[in-house]
Each structure stands twice: as C-alpha cells, then as structure tokens.
Amino acid sequence: MWNLLKMVAQQAADLGTDVYLVGGAVRDLLWGLRPRDLDLAVANGALDLARRMADRHRGTLVVLDGQRQMARVVFKQDYQLDFSPFKGAHIEGDLRARDFTINAMALHLNSLCSSKNCTSPADQGWRSFLVDPTGGKRDLQLGLLQATGNEALLDDPLRVIRGVRLAAQFNLSITPETVVLMRQGARRIEQVAGERIWQELGQALTLPHVHHWVEFMDRELNLWQYLLPGRLRMEATEQNYYHVENVWRHCLRTFGCLEIVLKKYQFYHHLAGGATGPAVFKLAALLHDVGKPDTAKIRPDGRISFYGHAQAGVPYAEALADRLRLSGMERQYLVTLIRHHMQPLHYFLNKGYSDLKVFRLFRLLEGSFLDILILSLADVTATYTASERLSELTAYREYILKLIHRYEHEPEFFHPAKLLSGKDLIALGVPEGPLVGKFLARLAEMQITGAVTDLHSAKQWVIAELKNITPQ
Ligand SMILES: Nc1ccn([C@@H]2O[C@H](COP(=O)(O)OP(=O)(O)OP(=O)(O)O)[C@@H](O)[C@H]2O)c(=O)n1
C-alpha cells in the first residue's frame, strides 16, 4: 500500500498538485488496520491524476462522475483508489465538512513521500504528516465518537446510522452532545435514499454483536420508528399468549437471542441469503411478529393456531424491502423468513417428529430450513425466558437442535435421489401443468416413507395414482 501511495504522490508532484489520503483509510491506519479502499482528496485535477495512475501503473479506471471530477482506479482487485477534489477551498475545510472527527483526518502524501518516512506503516514517522483539524486522533485514542460540528448530521442524516455502525465496529462511546445531534438527525432519516440506508444498516447488522446498538437506536434515537413499518403498532400490541411484553419488546429480545444462538452454535457460516444474508436475517428477527395481532388463537380443542400473524407480516416485510431497495434475493429471503417463522413451533406442538413430518417441514421452508429453525429457536427462547417457561424451552431447543443435526448430517434424507423426472411423468401419462409438480412432491414423500424404493416401484405408484385421477 505504501508503494502505491508513493506512486500517487509522484504523479501528483508531476502534475503540480497536492494529494491527501483521507477519511476511513487514515482512521484505519491509526487503528492498526491495513485499509484497501483508499480515498484521495486532490487539490486540482483529480481526474487527471486518476487517469495517470491507471495509465502508468496498469490500473482500471472508472469515471464515477466526470463533472464532479470523481474517479476510481482498481489495482488487480487488491486496492481501490477513489479520487475526488477537495470539498471546499482547502483540505481543512474538506475535513471539517465530514461526519465524525475520527473520519476527518488526512495524510499529506506529497510531504510524506518526499521524506524518508514513506517506507512502511510500521515506521510510525508517517503520523507527523497527519492533518487533524477536529481532534480525531485524540478521540480515537479515547474511544470516542464525536460529530465534526452541529450541522454534520443534519446535512446528511445517513451519518446517524454511520455513527452507530462506527461505534459498534470500533467499540466507541458516543459523546452525549453527539447523541443529541444524532437524535435530531434521525428525524430526517426519511429524506435519505433507501439504498444508502441499507448499505450502512446492512453493514451494522452484519457485525456479530449489535443488540446493544439496536436497542440504542430505539431508546436514544427513535430510529426504528422511522425505519420500520409497523414499529409503533408492534409496541401498542401485547403478545396475546403468555402476556409478558409487547410485540416490539419481544422482537428486540428475539434479536438479542438470535445473536446468542448464532454465536453459541457457530451458525453464522451456514446461513442462506448471500453476502448480506446475516443482515437480512437480523432484520427479520426485528420484524418477525409485525403481523400480530391477527394471530395465535387457542382453539376449542386446546391446540394453538398460529398462521395468521406470520402471513399478515408479509406486506410489512415487502414494504420494508421496497423502502430499503433490497435486491430481489434479499427481499425473497426476508419474506420467506417472516412468512414461515411460526412453522417449526407449529410442527413441534401439533405435528411431531416422524420422517414424513420433518421432510414436509423442510419442503415448506423454501430453501431456508436452517435459517428458519434458528430464527424460531431465538423467537421461542425470547418468549419462554421472558415468561419463565424454561422446561418447555429445553424441550423445544432439543427438537430444533435435533432437526439441525439431521439437516447437517443426512443430506440424502432431505434430497432423495430423483427416480423420475417431470418428462418421465408426462411420458407415463401425467397431464402437463401443475399436476407434474404435485406428483414429483408426492413421489419424494413416498420415497421418505419407504413406499417407493426404486424406479420400478416409482412407476407402479404413478400408474396406480393416475387411475385415481378422475378422467375428464
Ligand atoms: N455520509 C458520509 C459518508 C462518508 N463521509 C466521509 O467520507 C469518508 C469515506 O466514506 P466511506 O468510504 O463510505 O466510509 P469509511 O469511513 O471509509 O468507512 P469504511 O471503510 O468502514 O466503509 C468517511 O471516512 C468520511 O470522512 C462523510 O463525511 N459522510
């Protein structure tokens, strides 16, 4: 990295301009990290400098905004350099216009690289070229997050969420004055584009232990009220069985339990949902009961019917996905988690643990079997610990862990070899259309129960079933 920065300084000197390493990269260096995304503020000719770096050092140039002179140069996927002009007349002005003091520092590369100190980050000499007009270095040492000024968070309310993310990431305390500014900024969060919110919120939620910060966003900043559709309604709705706390408190508790369950059983790496999967998963925990109170009813026979509220939560999940502009995959994942989160408990209470029931539950959960089992365990842990029903919790935990163990150790059970394809079924006389899918699903279940064991018995079963279909 240091060599790359030397090259930047050299090219800048040739162009007769000043260049500074700024923002998060400087913070990370002081924190002892090796940044890979390097932001560079250039006095004049940012685009020319980016072009020279790409041409002369075999980087790939992407002009991000030609008019505003912003460009990115990528080097063999190792480092990414973002060039932009100073915001303001000079570097101090640029830094003061940034979000937090720890992000408002710069390194003057021209001076640094013309000195003998430009060798390696281990050589601490580079610190003497720090430009730090707001006291970022001191704040970082003290573990404090502080806004650069009174307007910083009103100018760009996204910075409120960035602040929470940075505090969580670097384990910082937010100064009381900055908390007040964050609270004011939070009221304007609705002005911020959904994709920007999701980018920061997603990063924050991906961190492994943010329960405390999620509570902070609620208690101190009222942020969830602006971000989550249904947040107020959840607070106004009592859990309608066990009557311990309102739905929103329960969801916050579930969020905390989810982080514990994920850590305790090392589940982080098994989740579906792609790179942002963990963040969507946690969002689902926070929203999972939003559909209450159209909800669990005790039926006359004493059994509990759960379907209503999980289904009723789907439109809220969709509205949130739209607001945050989640990708199609993220949206689908969120909706699936919300829609089916009650099913494992429903199966536990009402259906039992036969092979067929386990297989049906697996099929029902649409590729998110493991994730929904974990969410359900967190959900039930939250409910049963709050209402001190610990023996029931033990039984449920055993049930879920047994399912998870089976899922991880018996892949052939969950994915039985396909004896007949859709085409085979049609050749045997199954009418084209939805019936083919139904036959395939039934056939898989027949394999699970052992009623069908090989190609011959599969064909026999299909032929016999076809006779049961009334001819039109
Ligand atoms: N809303 C924002 C976004 C960014 N910045 C400034 O731009 C720098 C670069 O932003 P970005 O690359 O998004 O974040 P980093 O702080 O570099 O953090 P990370 O590398 O962890 O994403 C920040 O350090 C900060 O100085 C800001 O003031 N306000």
UniProtKB/TrEMBL annotation:
GO terms for biological process: tRNA processing. The keyword RNA-binding applies. It comes from the Bacteria. Keywords: Hydrolase, Magnesium, Metal-binding, Nucleotide-binding, Nucleotidyltransferase, RNA-binding, Transferase, tRNA processing, tRNA-binding. Residues 243-393 form the HD/PDEase domain. Its cofactor is Mg(2+). The keyword Magnesium applies. One of its GO terms (molecular function) is hydrolase activity. Belongs to the tRNA nucleotidyltransferase/poly(A) polymerase family. This is Polynucleotide adenylyltransferase/metal dependent phosphohydrolase.
